[in-house]
Amino acid sequence: MFHYVLFKLRPGFTSEDMKRLYDNTYARLSEAVPEITSTAFRKNCVVRDSNMDVLIMVHLTDSAGLEHYLKHPLHLKFIEETCEHVAQKVSFDWEEEN
């Protein structure tokens, strides 16, 4: 199961600011949610108005793991800490077919 979230940040809040919050949260979150197999943070390398600024990728064992992750207090705290700095957010989830 893969969970991708793309963020367009508000002016005054940088990709580096978001990376600090990601680093502070996702190491602990990966330990707290055993279904998380890996996470990654990517900064967009091409500046265009239509592009998002940041991508967070979370690989999980299954869809039940996604539900556990989405409801976890550390994830909810990350949302709370970043929501005022995010102008737009898009998520995308997919599973490999066997």
Topology (SSEs and partners):
Layout: E1 2-9, H1 15-32, E2 36-43, E3 54-60, H2 63-71, H3 73-82, E4 86-94
Antiparallel strand pairs: 1-3, 1-4, 2-3
Helix pairs in contact: 1-3
Salient structural properties:
4-stranded antiparallel β-sheet, 4 strands, Alpha-Beta Plaits
Provide structural commentary.
By secondary structure, the protein is an alpha+beta fold. The protein has one domain (2-94): 2-Layer Sandwich (Alpha-Beta Plaits). The protein contains three helices and four strands; from the N terminus they run βαββααβ. The protein has helices spanning 15-32, 63-71, 73-82, and strands at residues 2-9, 36-43, 54-60, 86-94. A four-stranded antiparallel sheet has the order 2-3-1-4. Helix 1 packs antiparallel against helix 3. The longest helix is centred in the first third of the chain and has 18 residues, at 15-32. The mean pLDDT is 96.
Shape: globular
Q: Helix and strand succession?
A: EHEEHHE
Number of helices: 3
CATH uppermost class: Alpha Beta
CATH topology: Alpha-Beta Plaits
**Into which percent range does the helicity of residues fall?**
25-40%
Structural class: alpha+beta
Main sheet: strand order: 2-3-1-4
Tell me about the largest β-sheet: 4 strands, antiparallel
What is the average per-residue confidence, as pLDDT, rounded to a whole number?
A: 96
Runs with pLDDT <50, length 5+? none
Number of strands: 4
How far apart lie the N and C ends?
Answer: 12 Å
- The share of residues in extended strands comes to 25-35%
Query: Rg from C-alpha positions?
Result: 13 Å
Number of spatially distinct domains: 1
Specify the CATH architecture: 2-Layer Sandwich
